[in-house]
Amino acid sequence: MAHVLDLLLPQRCLGCGHPGAxxxxxxxxxxxxxxxxxxxxxxxxxxxxxxxxxxCAGRRxxxxxxxxxxxxxxxxxxxxxxxxxxxxxxxxxxxxxxxxEAVPRPAAWLVTFVPPxxxxxxxxxxxxxxxxxxxxxxxxxxxxxxxxxRRRASRRQQGLPLAERRRNVRGAxxxxxxxxxxxxLVDDVYTSGSTVAxxxxxxxxxxxxxxxxxxFARAVR
Length: 221
Ligand SMILES: [Zn+2]
Ligand SMILES: [Zn+2]
Hints:
Helix 4 crosses helix 6. Strand 5, helix 8 and strand 6 form a beta-alpha-beta unit. 36% of the residues lie in helices and 16% in strands. By secondary structure, the chain is of the alpha/beta class. It is built from eight helices and six strands. The strands form two sheets. It has a four-stranded parallel beta sheet with strand order 1-6-5-2. Strands 3-4 form a two-stranded antiparallel sheet. It binds zinc ion (2 copies). The site of one zinc ion has 8 residues, from loops.
């Protein structure tokens, strides 16, 4: 249904409302790219290259590294919200192009993604992290597969403080199928890192030695 509406309604840019493309050239050019220097571990922009930063120091993170293409500012927030809510088909390919420009091809055997909370995905009819993972896998010429499932529905992470976010997702994922030693884990937005850390820990428990997280956007404090 979402796709039919996309065809019938005049299109507007999700970022700025300008009539035309789903994301206009101005918005594409203005997306706040995350560039080095950054934290090697969690990908937060820093004043100089560091192995750990104030955001990730002292946290047990099951992933080896996290990288994102753009900072999660208001414009990016609107684009991601439109992508999630309206299931716009063109966005995943554009997002993947932007990620591929910013993030080097990960040294992984498989690209996988944070699975949907089923109710929400049914309502939306599609799942942005899976779309992004499939587009990136094509660009990087890597196999893509669903290895993670939700063990139970978790409350939305949005609006929860950090400690709550960790508790909310603890034990939320299980794996199915074969998990290779190095895996690239894709999600749409990195906020506190709690969700990808929990998903990475399920992949590690299933045999992955290295989990490399890649997201389209990242909250920057
Ligand atoms: Zn725009
Ligand atoms: Zn860090």
